[in-house]
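Dear U.,

Please find below the material for section 3 of the report. The protein was modelled together with zinc ion; I have listed the sequence and SMILES used, followed by the predicted complex structure.
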Amino acid sequence: MKGGNNVKDLKQQVAYLQGLAEGLGISKETKEGRVLTQIIDVLEGIALSVEDLRAQQADMETYLESIDDDLNELEEDFYEEEEDDTDYVEVKCPKCQDIVCFDADILEDEDLIEVTCPRCNEVVFINDGSYDDKCTCGEEHEEEDEEQLVAEKKSHTEDL
Ligand SMILES: [Zn+2]
């Protein structure tokens, strides 16, 4: 970690000063000696405080990194689910031939849902199973429609 050496230097320099003061025989009995000794004590206190702050900062960095990792995981999960939900079905309106797009979730929905054409208001799909094997118009094209529906759904899934 950057800065770690500075803290070590600071403590070493204070230790050197303490040794120097002792070696030079600076006495606490003199006025100057008392001031110098007090200054060195204050410096030692500062060096220890800085060391504590560095350790706390390192803990904080580790904690932030773990939060960042968790957030990334959450984001990945969130966007994966978003993609899964974006599944649409297209059907052609039997009246005006317009392509009507609706959420594929309607197919599995337990409530009765009618999908109407936004252009002519014709009902293009009801999720009561009636559109699975027969068409309300009575014409013989249900197999084709069914295949088209599946094909449209498949192509949309592949696009994602
Ligand atoms: Zn229509």
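For the text of the report, you could mention the following: The pocket of zinc ion is lined by residues 93, 95-96, 98, 117, 119-120, 122 (CB under 6 Å).

Regards,
Y.
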